[in-house]
Amino acid sequence: MNESRPGQEKGILLYPPDERIAPIERFQGQSIISARQFTLGGLQEVCNWAKELKGRLKNRWNAAERLRGYTLATLFYEPSTRTRFMFEVAMQILGGNTVTETDVRFSSRIKGESLEHTVRVVSGMTDGVVLRDPKAGSVLEVLPYAVKPLFNGGDGDREHPFQALKDYYTILDEFGQIDGRSFTLIGDLRFGRTVHSLAYFLSLHKGIRVNLGAPPDLQAPEEMIDVLKRGQVELQTYCRLGDLTDVGDIIYVTRVQSERIKDPTIKAKIEAVAPDFTITEAFTERFPHTKIMHPLPIGSGEIVKELDSHPNSIYFKQSDNGVLVTAALLLLVLKGGW
Ligand code: NCD
Q: What angle do CA 77, 255, 226 make, to 5 degrees?
C-alpha cells in the first residue's frame, strides 16, 4: 500500500506484546482490548457462561435483574450494526442501560476534544465504555484515560476481539471442540480485523491447520503469521481459492475492507481477482462438509445470496450468538459473574 496509515509506518498491524494486554486470570474490572488477553481457560469461562445464559435467558424476568443499575456507553466512530446492537441488547436483556454516540458530528470531538478526554468523561459517568474507532491502536492508546472498563469494538485494521469471541463460541458450539480442526481464512486478511483476533484464539489450540487465501495486496500481516506459527499451527498460503484441494472444516470468509484502501490501482487489482475468492453453490458441491463463516456484513457478494439458507452457512448463527457471548463477558467484567 502506498498511503500511510496509523501504525503501518512501524509495520504494526496487530497489537505487539504489551503488559496492558497480557493474558488475564480474572475478568472482573478489566478492560478488553485484544484477543491476546484470553487464555484457553478464559475463553472456556466466557463460553461456559454464554451456554449457561442461553438457558437462563429463556426466563427473561430472572435474567433482567442482573445488571440493573449498570450503564454502558457505546462510542462508535465507524459504521456498525451488529457490534453496537449486541452490546446494547446484551445490556438491556440483563436489565442494564446504555447510552450511545454514533456520529462524531454531534460529539464534543467536533469542538476539538481529544478521544482521550471523551473516554475519560464518558467512563466517569458510566460503568463501562465500548469504543469503535477508525484509527489502528487507538483503543489501547486511550486506555490510561478510562476510569472504568474499556471494550474494543474494533480499532481500525487491528483487532476485533468481540467478533472473534462469537466466532470462537460458534465453532465450539458447532464442532464440540476446536483442537484438531482445520480452517481456511480468505478475503481481506490484511485489513480485516476480525481474523487478526481469531488467529490469536486458534493459536492457543493443538493440532490446528490453517490455509490463508488472499490476493497479493491483502495477505495476512506478518505478525498474524507469527502468532499462528508460535502456536504450532500448520500453515499454508494460497493466492486463489481454486488452488485449494482441501479447505477443511471451516471456511471463514471476509469482506474486502475497501474503506481502508484508498489507492484506486490497488482497488482495481483487488476487484479483478474477486471472483477467485467468491463462495458459490459450486463451492459447497466441491466441499460438502465445510461450514461457511463470515463476520458480516457481506460487502460485495463474496458469498452468493443463494447460500444464505444453505445448511453449511453458519454466518447468521455467528451473529445470533453475539448477544449471548457479550452478555457473558459483560457479567464477568462488570460483576464478576451471575
Ligand atoms: C466486522 C468489522 O467491523 O470489523 N464487522 C463486524 O463487526 N461484525 C467485519 C467487517 O466490517 O467486514
A: 90
Digit-coded pLDDT (tens) for 117-155? 999 999 999 999 999 999 999 999 999 999 999 999 999
* Cα(186) to centroid(ligand 1), Å: 14
As a whole number, mean pLDDT of residues 262-286 equals 93
Query: Amino acid letter at 123?
Result: S
Query: Which residue has 466466532 as its cell numbers?
Result: 167
- Our mutation pick for probing the ligand 1 site, out of 13, 155, 193, 194, counting the most ligand atoms within 8 A of Cβ, is 194
Q: Ligand 1, closest atom to CA 162?
A: 7
Across all residues in the chain, what is the average pLDDT? 93
- Supply the DSSP string of 64-90, one letter for each residue: HTTTTT-EEEEEESS--SHHHHHHHHH
According to the model, what pLDDT value does residue 5 have?
Answer: 41
CA distance 60 to 50: 15
Atom of ligand 1 nearest to the CA of 83: 7
Among 158, 162, 296, which is best to mutate for testing ligand 1, by the most ligand atoms less than 8 A from CB?
296
Residue 30 has pLDDT above 50, yes or no: yes
Distance CA 24, CA 147 (A): 18
Compute, in angstroms, the gap from residue 242 CA to the centroid of ligand 1: 25
Q: What is the 3 state secondary structure string of 233-279?
A: CEEEEECCHHHCCCCCCEEEECCCCHHHCCCHHHHHHHHHHHHHHCE
Instruction: Give yes or no for a contact between 267 and 302, defined as CB atoms under 8 angstroms apart.
Output: no
**136 CA distance to ligand 1 middle (Å):** 14
Overall average pLDDT of the 209-221 stretch: 94
Q: Beta strands 234-238 and 209-213: pairing type? A: parallel
Give the separation between CA 47 and CA 50, rounded to whole angstroms.
Answer: 5
Q: Say how many Å lie between the CA of residue 65 and the centre of ligand 1.
A: 31
